[in-house]
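Structure (tokenized):
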């Protein structure tokens, strides 16, 4: 049986070329690689209160915040996650300068829990005349008893099946 050996003088250049190939292949991405950019696959906006809070900090997470309207009434769709050890209450929601009415009163946020509003949830926040159209951006202001008030620029989407308005009660 005959073995073919790589000449000793070729081993070093081959190893160096392999190492360079592996090292340089990742350099094309640089500091702005797509995988290092924030990307939110949801329609709505996400913020933490207080702003800049990181995983492991105590914060209130506002997830997938958006407004649903076909040009008339408007509703707030949002998921709130209370990542604190204290209960909080969503006391007010405003779409632009219009105050939403909470069906069932203010929304309680128990510590360590998530609460959804709109989007098929039992909790609903409605504005009778939203004054916004699908495709618009509008300010959504959320006021909490403990976390304070935050204003987010959110997208207005139409009330298709996923974000349909609650059924009218007969």
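Design, position by position:
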């Amino acid at each position: 049986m005959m073995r073919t050996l790589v000449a000793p003088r070729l081993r070093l250049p081959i190893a160096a070329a392999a190492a360079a190939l592996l090292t340089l292949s990742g350099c094309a991405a640089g500091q702005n690689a797509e995988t290092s950019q924030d990307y939110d696959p949801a329609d709505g906006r996400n913020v933490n209160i207080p702003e800049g809070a990181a995983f492991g900090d105590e914060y209130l997470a506002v997830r997938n915040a958006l407004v649903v309207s076909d040009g008339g009434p408007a509703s707030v769709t949002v998921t709130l996650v209370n990542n604190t050890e204290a209960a909080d209450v969503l006391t007010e929601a405003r779409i632009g300068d219009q105050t939403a009415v909470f069906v069932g009163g203010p929304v309680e946020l128990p510590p360590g829990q998530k609460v959804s509003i709109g989007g098929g949830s039992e909790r609903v926040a409605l504005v009778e005349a939203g004054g916004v159209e699908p495709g618009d951006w509008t300010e959504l202001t959320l006021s909490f008893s403990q976390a304070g008030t935050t204003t987010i620029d959110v997208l207005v989407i139409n009330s298709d099946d996923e974000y349909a308005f609650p059924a009218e009660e007969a």
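Reviewer-requested clarification: The mean pLDDT is 83. Residues 5 and 54 are 55 Å apart (CA to CA).
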